[in-house]
Amino acid sequence: MVRRTITDSIWKQLEDTMHSKDCHKWKNDRNIMEVIIWKLRTGAPWRDVPQELCPWKTAYNRFNRWQQKVYGILFFKLRGEVDKEWVFADGSYVRAHQYASGARSGEERAIGRSRGGLTKKIHICADAHGNLINFEITGGEVHDSKVAAEMIDMVKGSEYWIADKGYDSEDIRDKARAAGMVPIIP
Question: Which CATH number applies to 86-97+109-184?
Fold first, then answer.
């Protein structure tokens, strides 16, 4: 028997959010979500999905379909209350697989070349409790200061903007002040 992680109350929230966004409703949606969570938690290949939940190909196809329509909405709708008094900003590199750059042509993949090779960079804004407020994904060669204006626009209404030396610029400080925040940048 496979261990299940989605409670009835969590499933109700997920289901309401998913089906409010013109997502087709299948009978096995809950099992598919269980499979997706299992796969993300274990890191196992799709072909190792427990057969008692659903066929792996069904889960894989639904994951790709929902990825385009629903996952961003689920993240922002289900994250709960955000404390915007103190907002922290930072960027982090993520290595891309060596074959990642050969993706379909015409699609933006946000992969750049930096000193470490092919990388992406995740620029985040988090509250004082470490809860993610918003994020931006760019190529690895994009410096923190290049996306600072977008990050500040994402968190308008905050009291303090706290960032590391990557955001050290008087233009960024002025932008934060103009948004009504006190910039705290070393």
Answer: 3.30.420.10
In degrees and rounded to multiples of 5, residue 12 shows phi and psi of -60, -45
Torsion sign (Cα): 40, 105, 148, 77: negative
Whole-model pTM above 0.70? no
Residue boundaries of the structural domains of the chain:
8-78, 86-97+109-184
The residue length of the chain stands at: 186
Tens of pLDDT, residue by residue over 5-50, are 788 887 887 777 777 666 667 777 888 888 888 888 888 888 988 8
DSSP-derived letter for residue 47 is: G
- Return the structure tokens found at 138: 């760019």
d(CA 90, CA 169): 14
Percent of the chain as helix, strand, coil, to the nearest 5: 40, 20, 40
